[in-house]
Structures are given as C-alpha cells and as structure tokens.
Amino acid sequence: MSLNDHHPFYTNRSTRAKVYLEANDVDRLQKAATNLRDRLLIRLLSHLGCRISEALGIKIEDIDLVNYTVIIQHLKARIQLRCPQCGAKLGRTHTYCPGCGAKVEKVIAEEREHRRLRTLPIDGETIRMLKDYISRGGPVLRGGNCLIFGINRHRAWQITRQCAERAGLPNLINTETGRIHGVSPHRLRDAFAVHAVKINDSGDGLRLLQEHLGHQSITTTMQYRKVAGEELSTWYGKLWEEENDC
Length: 246
Known about the structure:
alpha+beta, hpI Integrase, Chain A, 2 domains, 4-stranded antiparallel beta sheet, 3-stranded mixed beta sheet, 10 helices, 9 strands
C-alpha cells in the first residue's frame, strides 16, 4: 500500500482529491469553458486571485486597458453594537456599558459597510481577452453600472463547477477539516496564492501577496505558505512509494 493512500496532502487514488489546483489544472479549466465570458471569468479569478464578489463587481471603468490595471472594490458589512442609554460602542461580551455603566440588557445593532479599494496589475493575455470581450458587447448594464459580468454568485459557481467536470478535474480536499469539495471560484483564488508562494516565499513576496489579495492580516496569507510547502512532503513520500507498496 502506498503512502499516498494515507497522507491527506497527496492525491488520493480512491477519492481523486487534491489539495489545490495547479497551473495545468487551471489551464484545463479555462479551455473547458464553452464561451468567451466563462473563459474570461476563470481567467480573471485565477490570474488576479480576487474574490468572486470582487470579480462580479468589476465595471468597465475600473479597467485601465492602457496601463494594464484594474481597480478592485471589496465591500464588507460589519455589525456594530451600541448602548441604548449613551450610544457607546459595545463588545459582544459586555455586561455593563463602558460609557455610562448601565447594565446591558438590550443593544442597538447598526450595520455599516466598509469599502476597500486596491489597484491590481493584469497580464497582457488577460487584457487582450478583455478587449475582445468588450468589443463583442459582453458587458451588461445593471443599476446604472456597466458590469463586465452580468451574472450572480450562484451562476459563477455553476460555471466553475461545470467547467471542472468537463475538464475532468478531481475534487479538492480541505487540509484543515479533511472534507472534500468540488472546484469552486474560491479555489481559483487559492490556486493563485499557492502559485505565488511557490514562486516567491520571501518576506517581501508574502507582503506583496497580502496586499494583492487584500488580506488585513499577514497570518491569513501565511496559510498559503503552509499549503505550498506540502510539495516537499509530496517529493519525500514519492521516494519511498516502492518500499511502502511491498
């Protein structure tokens, strides 16, 4: 029996699960798309490493076809709790208000939106695809905005899953939980991050990756270094496959 049948970081022969998509997997996924819009969606997710919500929010005006950049907007809603007596900010565990000292029995919950913008570079081939897509009238007018993709998150997930099935790609295993999932838009973001770490895992490389992905904490970015590092374990395990098969 092979070590591959036991170790969660290797491709499992029975479940055909991998830890992350590699460059050739992404290429197969893109080629499996049946139209330019779907091919461009997969291309942007895998070459920008953006979140699906960010990709679907890209407008024509966000793209600089001359300087090869795109403005990515990340919108996040946060709930803020306040004391009904004095309006002071409260934490979820507060029993007494830190402002007026009153016992907290009811709170005022306010939802606030936080918008963060970052400008990302785009490679030449993706720019050429964008120009072709725009010239063919692909963008969709929604709510006064000319969006590159006029689809919702559910449709984006369907497109990615269907392309993965046509490409014959295996499922992916979550190394933290051991659960196996199908290929999704977020796995393309993961693939971008892991590829970046494999190319450059220096302190500067990780800092740039953190900025590119829009992570507030470097700890989140460092998780990809751990996944990329499993390549060493894979290499080591293969050295003894024949011995373990005996």
